[in-house]
Design brief:
With 119 residues, the chain is an alpha+beta fold. Helix content is 18%, strand content 39%. The longest helix has 17 residues, at 69-85.
Length: 119
């Protein structure tokens, strides 16, 4: 397991004729753990993973901000499938997950429970 936690998931259409994809914001584990973003297309082996802090600094160079998508792909796809199938649950970390659907678009937000929330 390379992923410590999923922060957010969103589905994008990529315009009117582009291939749709999911964006997954997550924290990973290991020696180079950080906040990362995964771009996951429907086709197998079409996954890009980038470090968010490095992106914010404008660093997009291969070898400096490039991570093996194949290492993260199974877990990313599993999480995308999980959230696609669930509109509203409380996950095992106590965070509220809610999905907003509009046509073919799905955005999943994860927020801490608010005070007084029975979950």
């Amino acid at each position: 397991m390379k992923i410590q936690s999923i922060i957010d998931v969103a589905r994008h259409r990529n315009g009117i004729s582009g291939a749709p994809f999911h964006v997954v914001l997550f924290e990973d584990i290991g020696d180079e753990a950080s906040l990362k973003v995964g771009i996951v297309f429907e086709a197998s082996h079409h996954v890009a993973v980038l470090d968010v802090r490095l992106l914010a600094e404008g660093i997009i160079t291969f070898g400096q901000n490039s991570w093996r998508g194949d290492v993260f792909e199974p877990e990313l796809r599993q999480q995308i499938d999980h959230w696609r199938d669930h509109d509203h649950t409380v996950n095992d970390t106590g965070l509220n997950e809610s999905a907003t659907r509009s046509g073919n678009e799905t955005t999943i937000n994860i927020n801490p429970p608010t005070e007084g929330d029975p979950s």
